[in-house]
Amino acid sequence: MASPLPPLSVGVRARVPAKINLALKVGPRRRDGYHPLATVYHAVSLYDEVSAGWAEPDEFEVSVSGEGADLVPLDEDNLVVRAARLLARTHGPYDSLGASLSIRKAIPVAAGLAGGSADGAAALVACAALWDLDLSAEALRTLAAELGSDVPFALLGGTAVGSGRGEEVVPALARGTYHWVLGFGHHGLSTPAVYGRFDQLTPHPAAPEVPDELMTALRTGDPRQLGAALVNDLQPAALDLQPRLRQVIEAGLDFGAVGALISGSGPTAAFLAASEPAAIDLAVALSADGLCREVRRASGPVTGARLVG
Ligand code: C5P
């Protein structure tokens, strides 16, 4: 088959947010190695960008710049390459498609913020546009779930309840904007290692359910109520693997956070502030304290992976 003509534009760019888990309830390890989850995802305004440009058929190359770029694989393990190949294989004239991909990272790697998953979602959106593929939202979501548990949420964004291994997402009824302060760790944490520690620390976990208090808090839009309802079953495992994180959480609460938790499998600490000015004060105090590698403010919810520019 002849190669489709390259489009006139040099490429397309998609922007995608980080996520935090407002609730992460984890059940017993399944036979396939995954854990059943009941989680509440929340997309926050810390963004990676993925650009896709035309390349020779069956040529998929990737470059990475920005936060933690040296930690991102550039081979076929890269989630952006996997996403592009999967999309080409399932929805395109496979032999005639290729892409030159570049990732600009602001979301740290191995941080519990689903940065790799975000990049995979952005690559699906960017390549679908580059190749002019007409995909339904449902078709994209199916590919996203194949790429990873957190990828469907990265497409959706907002605030959403996740079930299954996290890949089944339904938008949640949530009011208001929340102001967060994120404390990045000095070292990453491996998600499988944190789940493994969870298995050791929690031999008989209950079937996971999202707490009612959290869903009620989201409907009221009151940060104090939400702060009191934040919960993460993986937090004891993350604190066990990186005991210094306990100090980070305590420092944020001392500096006025209305809620604090480790995001996902960590090590990022997420602090909820009562207001935007309170978040600015909290970020300044935490930065000065020096416990975190870097401190960033972000608000949520924000939309999922979208084309920009
Ligand atoms: O789905 P994803 O490839 O992002 O998951 C990475 C790893 O995290 C899995 O291989 C598994 O070890 C762990 N995981 C899990 N249960 C989940 C999601 C992820 O045990 N629900």
Give a written overview of the molecule.
- The chain is an alpha+beta fold and 309 residues long.
- It has two domains: 11-172, Ribosomal Protein S5, domain 2, CATH 3.30.230; 178-300, GHMP kinase, C-terminal domain (Alpha-Beta Plaits), CATH 3.30.70.890.
- It is built from ten helices and twelve strands.
- It has helices spanning 79-91, 115-130, 137-147, 151-156, 191-201, 212-220, 223-229, 235-241, 244-254, 276-289, and strands at residues 11-26, 37-54, 60-66, 99-105, 159-163, 168-171, 178-184, 231-232, 259-262, 269-273, 294-300, 306-308.
- The strands form two sheets. Strands 1, 2, 3, 4, 5, 6, 8 and 12 form an eight-stranded mixed sheet that branches. Strands 9-10-7-11 form a four-stranded antiparallel sheet.
- The radius of gyration is 19 Å and the shape is globular.
- The mean pLDDT is 95.
- The structure holds cytidine-5'-monophosphate (C5P).
